[in-house]
Design goal:
The structure is a single chain. The protein has 412 residues and is an all-alpha fold. It has one domain: MFS general substrate transporter like domains (Growth Hormone, Chain: A, Up-down Bundle). It has 18 helices and no strands. Helix 12 runs antiparallel to helix 15. The two termini are 32 Å apart.
């Protein structure tokens, strides 16, 4: 039987697993750019950002792989495979003798994030059913991104005390072992829930799911494009913001706080923003979130003080929290249960391709025009994504503005 309360034990085990998934990537967010610059003497931004490029390509492809693996493997098996790919990651980062080791670690980390995070998302949606889907995604993303922020803060403070080598990545050994063991021995598969919901669903199956999710469907396609833009700006903030703050003579501790507050606020705020999507129009929530992100990125460029930079990081976290769980629920609410894994995987493929586009674009623009101009351009692209959501999407809730209620012609 579906429902959050009825399946609370399994649901929160998956929340715990997702926290470990998020912590793995959080270890890199405040220290990896500094590791490249200070330890390996990398100077070109395109080279420094190559670790994000490697991560983005493999994560996007791993997300897409879930769509095909779900036809032959259970959700739990895919989750466990994702953790197996993560086992070497902390050791590669700890003992890296060249930047190639870092690239290899991020290829494996991308596979881990794609398989493991996708599995926990899909399994939670299987468990809760349609009623509290937004709340479930809010809790899921809360756990994942709060742990990203806390791990980034932890790694940054370790680096400030012990340096960029070895020690900042030591907690990753615990995270990967804990995530793997909980997944193997405690998490249960959710296939039976999918079978039950499929028998009750009135949704039609989409004959051309790739096209519908990628662009053609007004709500799903617009959400997919904004997901790509969101992760594009996240890649640029992840890779370039620490370097910009280093140019402004911020300390390692200050950079760690800025890098950690953004995903921590992002995570905490999703406890509320996910539930908002169950009650209010997701169109306005998504457009507002994209606008806030664009303004926050612009603030990083225009204001140089630590206090305002922290405020911008906080605003960026709130803006991202507004969109992230609602991206997932917009896709899920338009999919037949039997197509859910594949449709969400297609969305997550395009969304995480944003890391690829972001790394390439940031490397080219930053080497040519500098960090500030690059961030301004990304800010404008993000705001345009919000404009697209406001003009192309429509609402599915009958108790909101009647002029925004979806019709078949509006959605397709």
């Amino acid at each position: 039987m579906q429902g959050l309360q009825k399946n609370a034990h399994q649901f929160f085990l998956l929340v715990l697993v997702n926290a470990f998934v998020g912590a793995m990537i959080g270890l890199e967010r405040s220290v990896l750019s500094g590791l490249g610059k200070e330890v390996f003497d990398l100077s070109e931004y395109a080279v420094i950002l190559s670790f994000i490029l490697a991560f983005g390509i493999t994560k996007a492809l791993a997300n897409l792989t879930v769509a095909f693996l779900s036809n032959t493997l259970t959700r739990k098996k895919i989750l466990i495979i994702g953790w197996l790919f993560a086992l070497p990651v902390p050791f590669l980062l700890m003992y890296a003798s060249s930047w190639k080791w870092v690239i290899l670690a991020n290829i494996l980390l991308g596979i881990n994030q794609g398989l493991a995070w996708s599995s926990t998302v899909i399994m939670k949606i299987d468990l809760v059913g349609p009623k509290n889907r937004g709340l479930a995604m809010g809790i899921n993303e809360f756990a994942g991104y709060l742990s990203v922020g806390l791990a980034a803060l932890l790694a940054g403070n370790i680096a400030a005390t012990w340096g960029y080598k070895w020690y900042p990545f030591l907690p990753g050994v615990f995270f990967v072992l804990a995530g793997l063991l909980v997944s193997i021995f405690l998490v249960k598969d959710t296939t039976d829930f999918v079978i039950h919901e499929t028998g009750q669903s009135n949704l039609q199956q989409h004959p051309d799911l790739w096209t519908k999710v990628s662009w053609q469907h007004h709500n799903m396609g617009t959400t997919t494009l904004n997901g790509l833009i969101n992760n594009m700006n996240d890649a640029i903030v992840w890779g370039l913001l620490p370097l910009l703050l280093m140019q402004r003579n911020f300390t390692i501790e200050q950079i760690a706080w800025v890098a950690g507050i953004y995903p921590a606020v992002w995570g905490l705020s999703q406890l509320f923003s996910g539930k908002m999507g169950d009650r209010f129009c997701k169109k306005q929530i998504i457009s507002a979130g994209m606008f806030l992100q664009g303004v926050a990125i612009l603030m990083f460029v225009l204001f140089h003080s630590f206090i305002v930079t922290v405020a911008a990081s906080t605003l960026l976290g709130i803006g991202t929290a507004l969109v992230y769980p609602n991206f997932l629920t917009v896709i899920a609410e338009h999919l037949h249960p039997s197509q859910r894994a594949k449709g969400l995987s297609i969305f997550r493929f395009w969304r995480d391709s944003g890391y690829v586009f972001g790394a390439i674009l940031a490397g080219i623009l930053a080497d040519r025009f500098g960090l500030s101009i690059t961030l301004i351009i990304i800010s404008m692209i993000t705001i345009l994504g919000g404009v697209l959501a406001e003009t192309r999407m429509c609402c599915t809730l009958r108790n909101f503005w009647k002029s925004n209620i979806c019709s078949e012609t509006a959605v397709y």
